[in-house]
Design a protein that fits this description.
This protein is mainly beta. It is built from no helices and 30 strands. The strands form 4 sheets. Strands 3-6-9-12-15-18-21-24-27-29-30 form an 11-stranded mixed β-sheet, with no helix packed on it. A 9-stranded parallel β-sheet has the order 2-5-8-11-14-17-20-23-26, with no helix packed on it. A 7-stranded parallel β-sheet has the order 1-4-7-10-13-16-19, with no helix packed on it. The protein starts with 10 loop residues before the first strand and ends in an 11-residue tail after the last strand.
Length: about 240
């Protein structure tokens, strides 16, 4: 008897692919086409491969997404939702009540914290830390080793839904090893440079240069990131 035979309330669609030594919690739903690698853990109430439901004026593509893929060793925690078309890298963790939307790629070893939201068409690198209730808006790019603090927020629409149909939206670009403090807000299209530091509660209205510290509303540069704080000193 396999592990998924003993999971109460498991809904495992027939076209899903399940690797070796996969553990399912209670009342998990796995949609058609989902690919689950070896040694993955899917906790109670998680939903894998949910099809997206789009508003009439949504800018997201409407074609049917590719299947969801979980690489080896992924953990999807209780009541998390990972959409069809996402790709979750090896040993990544998707926390309790988090969601990861379609056409989003999460890198190896990355942690998506409790109730965090990663929207559609986002690319997240390896070893990223997305803390509880943080939000990555659609079309954002997050490079390796970035830290996104709790309740930090990115945005992608300058007009707040007053743009013409077909207008492009622009998410944030967070370069390698930058750090975004808790509750910070990044306006559409902002780029935060490599090893830059955004203080908690800052409102970032323009690009932040590499290795600069910014704080305030609106955020202003106050000093350089010291050599002692660079990632290679802590790796």
């Amino acid at each position: 008897m396999s592990a998924h035979d003993t999971a109460p309330g498991l809904v495992l669609h027939p076209d899903a692919s399940v690797g070796h030594e996969v553990t399912f919690g209670a009342h998990v739903v796995v949609h058609d086409g989902v690919v689950i690698g070896d040694r993955c853990t899917i906790e109670d109430g998680a939903v894998l491969g949910k099809p997206p439901t789009l508003a009439r004026r949504s800018t997201a593509p409407r074609e049917v997404p590719e299947p969801l893929v979980l690489e080896d060793g992924v953990v999807v925690c209780a009541h998390a939702i990972v959409f069809a078309g996402a790709h979750i890298g090896a040993e990544a963790i998707v926390g309790d009540q988090a969601f990861v939307r379609e056409r989003t790629r999460i890198g190896a070893g990355t942690v998506v914290g409790r109730a965090a939201g990663v929207d559609n068409d986002v690319t997240v690198g390896d070893r990223v830390r997305i803390q509880s209730q943080a939000y990555l808006t659609a079309y954002s790019v997050v490079e390796d080793d970035v830290f996104l603090g709790p309740c930090a927020m990115t945005t992608n629409d300058d007009t707040m839904a007053r743009h013409p149909p077909g207008a492009s939206l622009h998410g944030a670009r967070l370069r390698r090893a930058c750090r975004i403090g808790g509750g910070a807000v990044l306006l559409p299209g902002v780029e935060v440079g490599e090893e830059a530091f955004v203080a908690a509660g800052a409102v970032v209205t323009s690009d932040v240069a590499a290795r600069k510290v910014v704080m305030g509303v609106p955020a202003r540069m106050v000093r350089d990131v010291p050599e002692a704080d660079l990632l290679e000193r802590w790796a």
